[in-house]
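Weekly structure sync, notes
Attendees: PL (lead), two postdocs, one rotation student
Agenda item 3: pending single-chain targets
PL asked that the sequence for the first pending target be pasted directly into the notes so everyone works from the same version. It is reproduced below exactly as submitted, 242 residues in total.
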Amino acid sequence: MPWPSRKRDKGAVADKKEPDAKIAKTEEETPDKEEEEKTTKPPAGSSKSGWKNWKKTKESDSGGEESKITYCHWLLKSEPESRLEKGVDVKFSIDDLKAQPNQTTFWDGVRNYQARNFLRAMKLGQQAFFYHSNCKEPGIVGIVKIVKEAYPDHTQFDQKDPHYDSSSRKENPKWSMVDVQFVRMTKRFIPLSEIKAHHLAHKADGGPLKNMMLFTRQRLSIQPLTQEEFDFVLSLEEEKPH
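Predicted structure, written out during the meeting:
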């Protein structure tokens, strides 16, 4: 029996006939509770210093050349706390993934067109952050990798599944999923609040997180990351939390 479906992009089903851009805009206007904009400013100097130190290290490693801006990594949101959706508990934490056979499972239930397109763009072996969402302390807890590229999401045809889509046809499925495998836990929990502090500082000084989709497309449960975004966030696991 498969595990409960992952975190969904609310609102996508109701807007099936709308273009992807409009769906994304609608989601942005109603952000998830843990990603609402807060007035708290980043700790003075801490984020900026971290960005400068990281940049200096990267320039040393690459001879000062900037990497191309391409999306080659991902961030996958999932809910670690129980929540019923049409009578089904959609909880799925990184510990649940680790408990799966071969620590591998399918990433089903995505019902937003933009997020689905990101799923379809994933390549075998690419890595993604596992992000605990819609919980008391949202943030990054581990790393997974793509072990099977996009294929039809079976839950769209299951009338008992809370994300059944009666308009989808087996000869032309609307929704896709991928298989992911646990790689490792991050060396420490990297909270949303800390990532946001860096994002706000980088918006001012041109750091790698200035356009991070976690803050520009908050509602999307599947988000792409550039190499620089992935590397910078990963470097945070080596730092002591502020």
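Discussion points:
- Confidence is low (pLDDT under 50) at residues 7-49, 62-67.
- Helices lie at 20-29, 46-62, 94-98, 113-121, 192-205, 213-216, 227-235.
Action: rotation student to compare against the earlier draft before next sync.
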